[in-house]
Amino acid sequence: MSRYYEFFCPVKVIAGHAALEHLPYELTAIESTRPMIVTDQGVRAAGLLDPVISACQESEVTIAAIYDEVPPDSSTTIVRDIANLYRQQQCDALIAIGGGSSIDTAKAVNILVSEGGDDIAAYSGAGVLTRPLRPFFVIPTTAGTGSEVTSVAVIADRERSVKLPFTSSFLLPNAAIIDPRMTLTLPPHITAATAMDALTHATEAYTCLSKNPLSDAYATAAVKKIGQSLMKVMDNPGDEQGRLDLAEASTMAGIAFSNSMVGLVHALGHATGALTHLPHGLCMSLYLPYVLEYNLEEIREPLSELLLFLEGPEVWTATPASRRAEATISAIRHLRDELHHHCELPRTLRETGKVQEGQLDQIARQALDDGSIIYNPREASLKDIQEILKKAWG
């Protein structure tokens, strides 16, 4: 537990029924009249741009350009193309509508259109940006990444086969708009994987070395909403209140881990994603119980507390205090089993069908070099990580 800490979240959150209709007001308040939408084809095909466009049509705001070809793993060339379109159409603000990839892409585009030039790699790293960027709004269509309230973005540089990280508080949007209509059409396996992403963000935020009382409040609130709503939404995908709960949980978990950091689950997830291209949320779900077991003796107290939020007061009271940490891990395993039953969300690396056992060594080495590992409550050697991967292999 750190005695000194900082907590920062300047993003305005506009949430709930008809939240989208408030976007034109936000734009006119900053005198933006020609925003650009950055999204992907799936989001557009699902009709999710329609309420945004019609809300803008009713006011004095003109959507000056729409880029709808962001791929799942965005790259530096796409960022350059979008920035050029923004300049050609004389846009004056950015609206990202989508999941983590569209949001990260728009963050990187904002750097280029604000700072100038074509080379996004020049701004990679932390603390490179020195002044505020153009107005930027985020409308998430998945409930998992929390990107709408984080100051980081990751963009692939295809030519050099590396992922470029960008970190700056200037990347934070002016506002995040959380509207349950945007996640109603999410397919079951994406609903499941993104919710597990948010659960991992909250759990690591609550158990890692830089946890603090303010991030704890957001983390526990996120775990409670996921515990109460995830299976309800899996059983009834049209449950608007449940969808809103999961979206709010994702935002709260994003605020939590932005201010407390994450740990070994993320180190393993980043390495696995880079080598096998498995979706990030799925990686989080795969590794979460195995890492919690590894960290168990260092995190017994906070992990015991999470049982109350994940399973509710009756289960918590009925569980002996000495068994609550283990019961939290069991509850997470049970949740993964239920999700596997519902939509075949893999529980082990073997079940994904996309990871070879021969890759585990490389994943372990890459995870050891990942920045997230610094905040893990228990130190991990290469051998420790190899053992965790062996268990996660299944």
TrEMBL record:
Query: Which InterPro entries does this one have?
Result: ADH_Fe/GldA (IPR001670), ADH_Fe_C (IPR056798), ADH_Fe_CS (IPR018211), Alcohol_dehydrogenase_Fe (IPR039697)
| Cofactor(s) needed for function | Fe cation
Q: Does the keyword NAD apply?
A: yes
Write down the SUPFAM superfamilies for this protein, in alphabetical order: Dehydroquinate synthase-like
Keyword Ribosomal protein applies: no
Check the record and name the Pfam families matching this protein.
ADH_Fe_C (PF25137), Fe-ADH (PF00465)
Residue span, Alcohol dehydrogenase iron-type/glycerol dehydrogenase GldA domain: 10-180
> Which residues are in the Fe-containing alcohol dehydrogenase-like C-terminal domain?
191-393
Tell me where on the tree of life, at the top rank, the source sits.
Bacteria
Keywords on record: NAD, Oxidoreductase
UniProt similarity note: Belongs to the iron-containing alcohol dehydrogenase family.
Name of this chain's protein? Alcohol dehydrogenase EutG
Gene encoding this chain? dhaT
